[in-house]
């Protein structure tokens, strides 16, 4: 089984607009629908009809690398090249959230080679890229492959204390729009923040967590450590179910998908866009807009202000984390993207480990405290109640109304593990 389904060549056509020129392997469109028959370029399955608009010019998933060149430089010019500049993108479709540098670096190199040959009818490098990726990602994908290249240190220094507010806002399952003009950073930031929730990225994979984290031939220390981690997370009811049928995550949406913001079938969502028109969509009821360029949070729903405000314990946690990341960065000899796989203080793995500790503390404290009553109002003025106050009562009350909390608290395995 390979998680790489297709490699595509997308382009901007002077008459047709965005289109897919080539796919390896070819799509099965023998029974074309009305949508497929009206598409420019090669025919696409209905569920991928919006794909051309995600590839050019916004390669926001880090699985699309776009470039352009002067048409006069081509040694072989096809009939569709009628303008001075040629704009094309190579795109990788995967069933898993593979936006790591392991894929992106290959994609960048092949895109450069594709343009350097100055003949877009020669698709050998595209076919070879598909073969290489298919052979590379054909079985169990370790967590390191899901998180490499997410640049968490950069995210921490961009958002600083606001990062914990975003983390807690996503736990409330609201309508959150990520906006950024740098589409690569837009995708990396969203996936990076999701990687702070223990097991959440793995839960987005088609291969189930309990299967993926323990390969059949697990013998190495790393395999056993992963198995232990999976067992620990499961005992705590992790990952929390932030996304599902009525709660969507789309790291990038095009203008053709703007109706999703007002869809009655979607109660909560996390969407990413580089188009500012989304921010003023009528009836969208956006709760917050997060700017990945500046690190600013625009809290549209002012009723959430008190809930995501950081108390003393929250501020101490995030300030210590930010200081550690900054102190680990040698401004003269280093950059925030180097040594991403290290476990030193301030590394990406360190950041995830600290948020895992925070999440574990939240869950254990909540479960232990709530065993004395069914709601916050029933708690006495005890030390347990003071422990919950560290996470902000206003936020706790809203979290207890979410689907992810109700599903988590109803898990009998969690009760047994924490009792």
Defining traits:
419 residues; alpha/beta; globular
Tell me what the structure shows.
The chain has helices at 34-37, 51-55, 101-116, 124-136, 143-147, 152-159, 162-171, 183-194, 200-203, 209-212, 221-235, 305-308, 312-327, 348-370, 383-389, 393-399, 403-409, 412-418, and strands at residues 4-13, 17-24, 64-70, 85-94, 175-179, 247-250, 268-273, 288-291, 297-299. The chain is α/β, with parallel strands linked by helices and 419 residues long. The strands form two sheets. Strands 6-7-5-8-9 form a five-stranded mixed sheet, with helices on one face. Strands 2-1-4-3 form a four-stranded antiparallel sheet. Helix 3 (101-116) runs antiparallel to helix 4 (124-136) and helix 14 (348-370) packs antiparallel against helix 15 (383-389). The model has no long low-confidence stretch (mean pLDDT 82).
Topology of this structure?
Elements lengths: L3 E10 L3 E8 L9 H4 L13 H5 L8 E7 L14 E10 L6 H16 L7 H13 L6 H5 L4 H8 L2 H10 L3 E5 L3 H12 L5 H4 L5 H4 L8 H15 L11 E4 L17 E6 L14 E4 L5 E3 L5 H4 L3 H16 L20 H23 L12 H7 L3 H7 L3 H7 L2 H7 L1
């Amino acid at each position: 089984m390979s998680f790489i389904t297709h490699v595509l060549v997308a382009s901007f056509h002077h008459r047709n607009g965005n289109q897919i020129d080539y796919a390896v392997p070819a799509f099965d469109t023998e029974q074309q629908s009305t949508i497929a028959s009206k598409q420019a370029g090669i025919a696409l399955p209905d569920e991928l009809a919006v794909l051309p608009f995600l590839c050019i010019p916004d390669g926001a998933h880090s699985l699309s690398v776009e470039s352009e060149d002067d048409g006069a430089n081509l040694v072989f010019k096809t009939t569709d090249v009628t303008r001075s500049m040629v704009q094309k993108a190579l795109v990788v479709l995967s069933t898993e959230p593979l936006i790591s540098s392991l894929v992106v670096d290959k994609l960048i190199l092949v895109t450069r080679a594709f343009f350097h040959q100055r003949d877009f009818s020669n698709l050998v490098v595209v076919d070879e890229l598909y073969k290489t990726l298919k052979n590379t990602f054909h079985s169990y994908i370790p967590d390191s492959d899901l998180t490499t290249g997410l640049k968490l240190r950069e995210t921490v220094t961009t958002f600083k204390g606001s990062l914990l507010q975003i983390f807690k806002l996503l736990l409330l399952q609201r309508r959150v729009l990520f906006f950024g003009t740098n589409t690569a950073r837009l995708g990396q930031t969203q996936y990076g923040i999701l990687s702070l929730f223990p097991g959440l990225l793995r839960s987005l994979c088609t291969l189930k967590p309990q299967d993926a984290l323990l390969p059949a031939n697990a013998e190495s220390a790393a395999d056993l450590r992963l198995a232990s981690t999976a067992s620990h997370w499961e005992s705590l009811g992790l990952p929390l179910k932030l996304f599902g049928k009525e709660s969507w995550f789309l790291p990038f949406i095009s203008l053709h998908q703007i109706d999703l913001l007002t869809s009655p079938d979607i109660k909560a969502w996390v969407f990413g866009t580089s188009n500012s028109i989304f921010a003023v969509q009528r009836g969208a009821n956006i709760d917050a807009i997060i700017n990945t360029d500046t690190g600013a949070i625009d809290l549209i729903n002012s009723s959430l202000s008190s809930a995501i405000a950081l108390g003393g314990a929250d501020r101490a946690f995030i300030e210590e984390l930010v200081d550690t990341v900054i102190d680990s960065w040698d401004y003269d000899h280093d950059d925030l993207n180097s040594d991403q796989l290290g476990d030193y203080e301030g590394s990406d793995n360190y950041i995830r480990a600290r948020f895992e500790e925070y999440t574990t503390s939240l869950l254990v404290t909540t479960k232990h405290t709530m065993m004395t009553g069914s709601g916050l109002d029933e708690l006495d003025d005890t030390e347990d109640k003071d422990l919950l106050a560290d996470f902000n009562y206003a936020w706790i009350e809203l979290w207890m109304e979410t689907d992810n909390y109700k599903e988590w608290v109803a898990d009998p395995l969690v009760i047994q593990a924490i009792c």
